[in-house]
Amino acid sequence: MRKQWQLFLVALQFFTRLPVPEIRDFSNDMLNASARYFPLVGIVVGSFSALSLWLAAQVFPMPIAALMAIIVSILVTGAFHEDGLADTFDALGGAVSRERALVIMKDSRIGTYGAAALVFSQLLRWQALLILPLDIAVIVLIASHAAARAGAVSLMASLPYVRDTDDSKSKPIAQDLSLGNLLFALLFGILPALVFSIRYLPAVWMLMASGVLVIIFIRFYCAYWFKKRLGGYTGDTLGCCEQFGEIGFLLTAAAVCQQLSV
After folding, report:
1. What letter would DSSP give residue 244?
2. For residues 79 and 108, what is the distance between their CA atoms, to the nearest angstrom?
3. What is the pLDDT of residues 229-240, one digit of tens each?
4. What is the pTM of this model?
5. I need a labelling partner for 247 at 20 to 30 A (CA). Which of 67, 98, 150, 192 fits?
6. Neighbour-count burial of 28, counting CB atoms closer than 10 A to its CB (0-12 exposed, 13-18 middle, 19+ buried)
7. Cβ proximity of 191 and 237 under 8 Å
8. What element of type H or E holds 116?
9. Which residues have a Cβ under 8 Å from the Cβ of 137 and sit 6 or more positions away?
10. For 139-180, what is each residue's pLDDT tens digit?
């Protein structure tokens, strides 16, 4: 249990700005093994965002509360996945070679494609949250963060890592993902959706199932896209896949609520 706790702290430290206790005897192998807890980190991040949404909605109109929830998730993660989204779109948005795309991803500057992706991704999140009733929005935020990270982690099991340089921050986790770690990550990824489906109304079951199915579709589309353009994945493309998953889950939840008049 102590080892598993250490692995969770490694994952939390890598993907968030949250303070964690000192991790003794840290190694790159621990970072690779911590991949099983990436969706659990998503539950933590989603919970912060959901709590901020609920608290802000007690004081402010929903448009402001929804915006504050998005801001909190960005602050907790340090815009880690948003950076991957922007870099991926800058690299793959235009018709450039694989080699040039990998160079663009390493560039710290943001381009037109990346800026547009960031703006529209946040607008889609914001508008989706405005459609959802507050109680539904709270649980959807938690479930979407967890499931989206599980989708991204699963790419590590099916695609090769395409960077050879040792200075990549994602290099330590880009080793072979064991079946056990993959199954563990998938379990945490769908756990919130399952729990909320059992706990709440039948309409929530349909909403959660639809959101998970959309993330599965997004995962396979991203695998095809990254394989075709790059031959595999990078840390930035994992972040891009995670962002796609979050947005897809939120939009699906909003669509289901609209159709069912929840």
Report:
1. H
2. 14
3. 999 999 999 999
4. 0.92
5. 98
6. exposed
7. no
8. helix 112-131
9. 50, 53, 66, 129
10. 999 999 999 999 999 999 889 999 765 455 555 555 667 888
